[in-house]
């Protein structure tokens, strides 16, 4: 085995420590987290022999998790009934896995479908003892709620991870063996990413009794590894998870790295001096083999996190094994310690707890002091073996430190991992952009969103203000995919904190709930939208826009003999040069569309106005950039050769009013119909003056447009033939996206090419924008995005009844644009359901992941069951323990009453999933929100059939019914209902 494995993310809960930061604090102060057994675990009498003999167990002390019964089931779409049947170890691992991915800079939802393996160490199945031995109360969900495999498989299922997935039980070494197996799978290519975990929850005193009778339990409730006062082990609880990647892959993906795993080994004691007795030679062999595989010498290893149970025999054997490897001439002894002194023996999670400790030690550059180091057992003769206990933290040197982690199973399965410091990160100076980015946070509900916003506010406030852009990038990468979303563009660091806190306090500004689907229409502006310095602010703010605009300019400049960049950038100019107006507008339309496309703001259809159709053709794939640039440059050159004296006139009236006036003016034509009362005429300037006078006489408002040419009029006739010849040189292709044509006034057919004939007619014929827009709006877009240097077309669509309620967005609203509008547009669409490719908003210096606090799960819902006969207080938010549904009723002879069908069906839906009836809405998703799975669907089918005596097809329920309301409609369509008085209808 070769190749370093990177630890890129981690999370955990430990006795006395709710998260890794608190765990590190506990370790650094050599803290003690052992307490008396909580009252909700088992009866005090279970410690003692009811006949009055010696106690069953010699201690009532252990290391226990706070809120081990809490589970945010709604976040994972798990019903209360299923959650109540799940082993707490499954619940804890699911939440911890989610947070570990977030800590790695990875959105857990976006791991769906990836080749990610899940390897979990677990040795206790006490939940099964409590829930599966009462046979009358066994349910399908109690079956899936138990079993070692489900601890790993449930993570793979809920996150849709496709790599290997299994639980490991080798007793106390389970989770370190799981880590070894994950490394093997990564190096072999069986998975590209791995989640390694371990979990242990103490629910019964069974193992306490076993440890006491076997002479392994510390009667004084204190675990003292390698101490002269060692008396044995103390049981504990923990859950932890780490995310692993091959180091090269982690670096390439820009993931932060805590430490690297350089090598690992696993072996067995074989037939030694007892099944449960440790074997020095096997332990020594597994350590030496791990060093060999890691390519390190014993003298290079500065510290080892020992198994260290605190039993006299176990400590002696382990010290001898370590000494057999490390007892060589070395400048400094190897430091050893054991986290069990702080939190107890957490059994199936012991290996991963030790691993987290040493990963954090490498990350912080310090190995914590060993609790009880000052009472070192002299009989172990550690110094002679090249070993020492740390009475003070050990400062690691540089970024080349090497440490080890040992874990030994009760039945003889031994594991050892070799860890090294993470490689030095590449320094990246934060970009000094005018817009820091979009700050995002999301959740599955409004309460979760408020909690997450509050936590993110603390993270942002603690971070230096210069990192705001990188924090925005990280929030997009990790915290943006939930249904309920907060997304906004902060002006600065203080504004970011204030707005996050406002959201945490319930201000819904900048929040939204993602739609299931979005339909975007692009409106690409044409002549008349130009102004000096158009998009100059965006050019200064967005590197992506600058690059796209330069791409368009590079295509245009050889054809024009001039660049359009100054026209776009210079906001101090007073006019736009006539010969550059059309090319500049095309360049802007192309560059804006290119950035939006790269962002994922992709059109379901496109509609351009006159000149805007050239950019539409490129974005639809009908023309290449070079081809469109050729046509636009040719068009502009030919316009410049036309004699002066042309113009355009806008009139606020229907076509029917202007048509008789134009009939008397052969040098003026109808140039565009933009709306029911919005037309444009074009032609000879003197004739236009007469048209204007005639229309004013009819009380029609008119306005001359600031354009030098009479587009779409008889004045274009002298250049049509030459334009047609030049247009014939351009390659055309079928459009790949739907195009509503301003020339045709409708959607172009799949066989209609935007060819030379099209573009020649496009120059001369009127723009039928109103017809094209009406057809486009009939496609019911959810949003309109105007692509151009100012708002011109979106007001036209709002004048149409179908366009009044459709949100219209733009990345450049006009001369007073700030440059932040592209980010605001993205934030708005993200709140509404778009998952952008955020890369286009950020420069490389900003695309640096920073660790943010992981999602704060709700602790309101509680699920617990105590040992039989336990006298325990009710949890603060009690939930029902698993139980059978109430007996099926006898089939009713009468059909369901029409007036009450909704209520009766919703009652059944609530009964099956375990939610209170008032929480089951007609439009709630059965699977995503109410937690329905195939088991519940079958139960629902049975209850419907029993209630009304009608057959129900399970396949129909699974494929056709997604909400309680749809179920009601489905039943109405298949059964006869009564009017409530026995009459069938």
Automatic annotation (TrEMBL):
Organism: Micromonospora sp. CCTCC AA 2012012
The keyword tRNA-binding belongs to this UniProt entry's keyword annotation: no
Recorded GO MF terms: fatty acid synthase activity; phosphopantetheine binding
Statement: the UniProt record of this protein carries the keyword Transferase: yes
Biological process according to GO: DIM/DIP cell wall layer assembly; fatty acid biosynthetic process
Endpoints of the signal sequence: none
GO cellular component: cytoplasm; plasma membrane
Domain Carrier: from-to ranges: 899-975
InterPro entries: Ac_transferase_dom_sf, ACP-like_sf, Acyl_transferase_dom, Acyl_Trfase/lysoPLipase, Ketoacyl_synth_C, Ketoacyl_synth_N, Malonyl_transacylase_ACP-bd, PKS_assoc
Domain spans labelled Ketosynthase family 3 (KS3): 2-421
Keywords linked to the UniProt accession: Phosphopantetheine, Phosphoprotein, Transferase
Protein name stated in the entry: Beta-ketoacyl synthase N-terminal-like domain-containing protein
SMART domains: PKS_AT, PKS_KS, PKS_PP
């Amino acid at each position: 085995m070769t190749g370093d494995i990177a630890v890129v993310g981690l999370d955990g809960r430990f006795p006395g420590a709710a998260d890794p930061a608190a765990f590190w604090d506990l370790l650094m102060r050599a803290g003690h987290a052992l307490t008396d057994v909580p009252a909700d675990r088992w009866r005090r009498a279970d410690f003692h022999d009811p006949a009055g003999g010696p106690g069953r167990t010699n201690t009532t002390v252990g290391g226990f998790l706070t809120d081990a019964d809490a589970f945010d089931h709604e976040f994972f779409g798990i019903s209360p009934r299923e959650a109540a049947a799940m082993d707490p170890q499954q619940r804890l691992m699911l939440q911890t896995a989610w947070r570990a991915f977030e800590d790695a800079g990875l959105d857990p939802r976006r791991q769906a479908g990836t080749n990610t393996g899940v390897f979990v160490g677990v040795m206790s199945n006490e939940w099964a003892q409590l829930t599966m031995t009462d046979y009358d109360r066994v349910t399908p969900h109690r079956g899936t709620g138990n079993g070692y495999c489900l601890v790993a498989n449930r993570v793979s299922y809920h996150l849709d991870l496709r790599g290997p997935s299994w639980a490991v039980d080798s007793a106390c070494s389970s989770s370190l063996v799981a880590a070894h197996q994950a490394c093997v799978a990564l190096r072999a290519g069986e998975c590209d990413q791995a989640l390694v975990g371990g979990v242990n929850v103490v629910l019964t005193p069974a193992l306490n009794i076993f440890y006491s009778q076997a002479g392994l339990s510390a009667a004084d409730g204190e675990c003292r590894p390698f101490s002269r006062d060692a008396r044995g082990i103390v049981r504990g609880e923990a859950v932890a998870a780490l995310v692993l990647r091959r180091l090269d892959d982690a670096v390439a993906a820009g993931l932060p790295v805590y430490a690297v795993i350089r090598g690992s080994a696993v072996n067995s004691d074989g037939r030694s001096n007892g099944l449960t007795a440790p074997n020095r030679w096997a332990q020594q062999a597994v350590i030496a083999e791990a060093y060999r595989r890691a390519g390190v010498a014993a003298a290079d290893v500065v510290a080892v996190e020992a198994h260290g149970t605190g039993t006299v025999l176990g400590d002696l054997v382990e010290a001898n094994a370590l000494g057999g490897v490390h007892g060589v001439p070395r400048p400094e002894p190897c430091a050893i310690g054991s986290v069990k002194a702080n939190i107890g023996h957490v059994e199936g999670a012991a290996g991963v707890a030790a691993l987290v400790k040493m990963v954090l030690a490498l990350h912080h550059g310090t190995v914590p002091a060993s609790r009880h180091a000052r009472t070192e057992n002299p009989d172990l003769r550690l110094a002679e073996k090249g070993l020492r206990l740390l009475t003070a933290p050990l400062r690691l040197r540089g970024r080349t430190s090497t440490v080890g982690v040992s874990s030994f199973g009760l039945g003889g399965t031994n594991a050892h991992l070799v860890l090294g410091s993470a490689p030095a990160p590449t320094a990246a100076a934060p970009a000094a952009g005018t817009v820091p980015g979009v700050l995002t946070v999301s959740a599955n509900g409004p309460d979760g969103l408020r909690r997450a916003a509050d936590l993110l506010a603390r993270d942002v406030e603690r971070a230096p203000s210069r990192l705001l852009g990188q924090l925005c990038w990280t929030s997009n990468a990790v915290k943006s995919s939930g249904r309920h979303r907060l997304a906004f563009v902060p002006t600065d660091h203080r504004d970011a904190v204030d707005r996050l806190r406002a959201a945490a306090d319930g201000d819904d500004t900048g929040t939204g709930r993602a739609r299931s689907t979005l339909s975007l229409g692009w409106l690409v502006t044409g002549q008349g939208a130009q102004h000096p310095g158009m998009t100059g602010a965006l050019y200064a703010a967005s590197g992506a826009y600058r690059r796209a605009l330069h791409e368009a300019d590079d295509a245009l400049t050889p054809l024009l003999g001039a660049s359009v960049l100054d026209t776009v950038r210079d906001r101090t100019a007073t006019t736009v040069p006539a010969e550059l107006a059309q090319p500049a507008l095309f360049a802007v339309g192309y560059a804006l569309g290119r950035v939006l496309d790269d962002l994922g703001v992709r059109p379901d259809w496109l509609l351009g106005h006159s000149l805007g159709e050239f950019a539409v053709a490129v974005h639809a794939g009908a023309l290449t950039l070079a081809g469109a640039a050729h046509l636009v440059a040719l068009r502009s050159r030919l316009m410049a050769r036309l004699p002066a004296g042309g113009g355009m006139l806008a009139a606020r009236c229907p076509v029917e009013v202007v048509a008789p006036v134009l009939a008397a003016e052969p040098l003026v034509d109808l140039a565009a119909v933009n709306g029911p009362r919005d037309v444009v005429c074009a032609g000879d300037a003197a004739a236009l003056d007469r048209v204007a006078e005639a229309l004013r006489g009819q009380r029609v408002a008119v306005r001359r447009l600031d354009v030098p040419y009479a587009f779409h009029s008889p004045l274009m006739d002298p250049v049509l033939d030459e334009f047609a010849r030049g247009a014939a040189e351009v390659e055309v292709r079928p459009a790949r996206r739907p195009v509503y044509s301003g020339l045709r006034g409708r959607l172009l057919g799949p066989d209609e090419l935007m060819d030379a004939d099209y573009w020649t007619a496009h120059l001369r014929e009127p723009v039928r924008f109103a017809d094209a827009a009406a057809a486009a709006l009939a496609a019911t877009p959810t949003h309109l995005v105007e692509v151009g240097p100012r708002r011109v077309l979106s007001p036209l669509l709002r004048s149409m009844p179908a366009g009044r309620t459709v949100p219209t967005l733009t990345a450049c609203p006009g001369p007073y644009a700030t440059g932040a509008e592209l980010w605001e547009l993205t934030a708005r669409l993200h709140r509404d359901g778009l998952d952008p490719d955020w890369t286009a908003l950020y420069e490389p210096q900003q695309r640096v992941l920073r660790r943010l606090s992981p999602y704060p799960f709700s602790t309101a819902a509680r699920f617990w069951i105590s040992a039989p006969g336990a006298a325990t207080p009710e949890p603060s938010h009690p939930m029902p323990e698993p139980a059978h549904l109430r007996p099926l009723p006898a089939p009713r002879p009468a059909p369901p009453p029409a007036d009450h069908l909704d209520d009766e069906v919703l009652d059944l839906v609530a009964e099956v999933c375990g939610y209170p009836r008032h929480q089951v809405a007609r439009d709630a998703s059965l699977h995503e929100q109410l937690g329905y799975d195939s088991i519940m669907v079958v139960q629902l089918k049975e209850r419907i059939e029993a209630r009304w005596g009608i057959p129900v097809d399970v396949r129909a329920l699974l494929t056709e019914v997604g909400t309680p309301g749809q179920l009601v409609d489905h039943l109405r369509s298949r059964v006869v209902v009564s009017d409530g008085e026995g009459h069938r209808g």
